[in-house]
Amino acid sequence: MMLDRITFDQNIMGGRACIRGMRITVSQVVNLVANGMTISEIIRDYPYLEEDDIRQALRYAAQLTEEEVHPIPSR
Q1: Higher pLDDT residue, 69 or 24?
Q2: 32 phi and psi angles, rounded to 5 deg
Q3: Tell me, what CATH number does 46's domain have?
Q4: In the prediction, which pLDDT does 1 show?
Q5: Can you tell me the distance from the alpha carbon of 55 to that of 39, in angstroms, rounded to the nearest whole number?
Q6: What does the pLDDT look like over 2-28, one tens digit per residue?
Q7: Total number of domains constituting the chain
Q8: Does residue 22 lie in a domain region?
Q9: Which residues pair with 47 in a beta bridge?
Q10: Using CA atoms, how far apart are residues 66 and 27, in angstroms rounded to an integer?
Q11: Beta bridge mates, 18
Q12: Which domain holds residue 46?
């Protein structure tokens, strides 16, 4: 799955995952959705975002939650 709208640049937001090189992070977008905003509401408040930006931010966040954690057995 291609995530071509998710960018990383050390000079923008300290290298955090951003939308198309803008100063809006994936975490900001995910927080907006998590707090109940619809895609239409987000685009209204952030007109420089596109629906695909929001969908890719959510896909990226979903991929991060797929990580497996293998704890080190205690001795």
Answers
A1: 24
A2: -60, -45
A3: 1.10.10.10
A4: 65
A5: 9
A6: 899 999 999 999 999 999 999 999 999
A7: 1
A8: yes
A9: none
A10: 16
A11: 7, 25
A12: 6-63
Q: Which two tokens stand for residue 71?
A: 């704890």
Contacts with 3 (C-beta within 8 Å, 6 or more apart), sequence order: 56, 59, 60, 63
Residue type, 21: G
What rounded mean pLDDT belongs to the chain?
94
As separate numbers, helices (DSSP H) first and strands (DSSP E) second, the chain gives 3, 2
Q: What share of the chain is helix, strand, coil (3-state, %, to 5)?
A: 45, 5, 50
Structure tokens at 70: 């293998």
What digits encode the pLDDT tens for the residues 30-55? Answer: 999 999 999 999 999 999 999 999 99
pTM of the full predicted structure? 0.84
Based on its alpha-carbon atoms, the radius of gyration of the chain, rounded to whole angstroms, reads 15
